[in-house]
Amino acid sequence: MVKDRRNPGYSPGNLWVHCRYGLSDFGKSGADPGPVLPGAGDSDPAACPEQKSIGQSLSLKRRLWMKHDILVKYNETVTDKKAMEAEVRNLFQGVLSVEGVHGVAVIPNTVERPNRYDLLIEIEMEPSALSAYDECETHKQWKKNYAQYLEGKAIFDHD
């Protein structure tokens, strides 16, 4: 559930957390950011007065970061997708120790169809961290231990 001013469950404190820290910082701290407000942390000082003084520099830095997306399609040997998702989520927490990596999200597909991918792994990082990520132990384990379960994989890097 997204919290906003139109929702009776709106929490200004929650908005402030997103504006001040940005979503990616929660990856390393382990804190749960709760529901996400679209665009929070980017620009609306009226919605978040602290944004102007504290969040603005973080917002600028976040625009310099990239997202490294890995789309995953399991093969027929994966019968418990929830269990596999949990394993992958646990494995990819290891990328948070890579210098320049600021967050990771493992997002399951919500539509079960044969022509859909099953999972999105999104890593938020500085562009210069991509080489270090490629050489990190988590990435090596991913390729060595999970390639056998994949029918397809797509990599996409973007701002």
Question: What do these coordinates show?
Answer:
The chain has two domains: 12-63, no CATH class; 65-158, Alpha-Beta Plaits, CATH 3.30.70. With 159 residues, it is of the alpha+beta class. Helix 1 crosses helix 3 (49-64). A four-stranded antiparallel sheet has the order 2-3-1-4. The chain contains six helices and four strands. The longest helix is centred in the middle third of the chain and has 16 residues, at 49-64. Helix content is 37%, strand content 21%.
Helix content estimate = 25-40%
- Helical segment count: 6
Shape summary:
globular
- Largest beta sheet, briefly? 4 strands, antiparallel
Unreliable residue stretches:
1-55
CATH class of the largest domain: Alpha Beta
Rg from alpha-carbon coordinates: 17 Å
The proportion of residues in beta strands is: 15-25%
Order of helices and strands: HHHEHEEHHE
- Secondary structure: number of strands: 4
How many domains would you count in the coordinates? 2
Strand order of the largest sheet: 2-3-1-4
Briefly note the structural class of the backbone.
alpha+beta
CATH structural fold name of the largest domain? Alpha-Beta Plaits
Quote the distance from N terminus to C terminus.
Answer: 26 Å
Question: Which architecture of the largest domain does the CATH hierarchy give at level 2?
Answer: 2-Layer Sandwich
Q: What is the arithmetic mean of pLDDT?
A: 75
